[in-house]
Amino acid sequence: xxxxxxxxxxxxxxxxxxxxxxxxxxxxxxxxxxxxxxxxxxxxxxxxxxxxxxxxxxxxxxxxxxxxxxxxxxxxxxxxxxxxxxxxxxxxxxxxxxxxxxxxxxxxxx
Amino acid sequence: xxxxxxxxxxxxxxxxxxxxxxxxxxxxxxxxxxxxxxxxxxxxxxxxxxxxxxxxxxxxxxxxxxxxxxxxxxxxxxxxxxxxxxxxxxxxxxxxxxxxxxxxxxxxxxxxxxx
Lengths: 110, 115
Prior knowledge:
The structure holds two protein chains of two kinds.
Chain A: E1 4-6, E2 11-14, E3 19-25, E4 32-38, E5 45-49, E6 55-57, E7 60-65, E8 70-75, E9 84-92, E10 97-100, E11 104-109
Parallel strand pairs in A: 2-11
Antiparallel strand pairs in A: 1-3, 3-8, 4-5, 4-9, 6-7, 7-8, 9-10, 9-11
Chain B: E1 4-7, E2 10-13, E3 19-25, E4 31-37, E5 43-50, E6 56-57, E7 68-72, E8 75-80, E9 89-97, E10 103-106, E11 110-114
């Protein structure tokens, strides 16, 4: 079983749609959780950290369920510019060892 | 957030040669991390580089193949030694960025092709 598993992609959605990505992790000792965005041929960039209380940043909402070892990302009112690969990332070993999911590709279309 | 300058951005190398990748950070950081992203894959941690001590390598990666230097708190190098086509990949450095919600910032990557 992979340490971090994500929804298989790609997700092709129309502009304005709401889309949800799921992620599960296997190491119960994991301490930090992130969603990163990676555009084609670019480095990953932090989208948001994920907290147990859940957090929201504009159109993006992230949730963490430690009991189920499950992380989610919700994107509302999707834009063409949201098209990218979204990486679920989990930190262990004091949070410094990051394990990346394989990513879910999102394509937002007109 | 931290700004990382990574170079070269890309290179095409002959098998059997070595390439050294450099990362310069605009602030002092305790740890720097080196990752590999193979074509169509996600990122895999190669090693953690601490200033003043030997790097800590992840399973499957060894110092002879990927020697790392960390001479000060703002700079690190990763060398890919005795390259083969299987080493063709994107290599990225990263630092913990306390100014960005405790996330990690990445360099722009080095796209390596071994022929």
